[in-house]
Amino acid sequence: MKNNIIFEYYDKNLHYDLNELFDDLKNDVWRKAVLDGIEDGKPVIVVSDGGRICGYAGPLSVQSSMRGYFEGIGVHSAYRHHGIGKVLFNVLCESLKEKGAGFMSLFTGETNPARNIYESAGFKIVRVWSDMQKEI
């Protein structure tokens, strides 16, 4: 990891290795959402290390309810445990506020390590739900 970490909006002329990031994250749903969002002109925040994308948050939008919405957030495994995810989430929250969002909400798992980041940013648990299954 270099020390040239920058948090900014994605620019195809400045940033590279977006697909490599999603290969590392092993999440094709996020990959599709981000690539579609970029194509539709929606902003995506990236963490770049000398232009190489090592994290992302987005695509960003403000819904008619004034809810700030983002499809996903992730940091490349080689860049974890350095506080990048926490800073990225705070940049995400501030960006949505600047875009006119009045609030944010999200779903997360009980054991998701990112839950600590959300709570440190002031998010509170307002509802707990169950994932149910039946063998048939």
TrEMBL record:
The cross-references to Pfam families, in alphabetical order and at most eight, read: Acetyltransf_1 (PF00583)
Annotated N-acetyltransferase domain ranges read 5-136
Any GO MF annotation of the entry = acyltransferase activity, transferring groups other than amino-acyl groups
Checking CDD domains in the record gives:
NAT_SF
Gene3D superfamilies recorded for this chain?
A: 3.40.630.30
**Entry protein name:** N-acetyltransferase domain-containing protein
UniProt keyword Transferase, yes or no = yes
Provide this UniProt record's keywords sorted from A to Z: Acyltransferase, Transferase
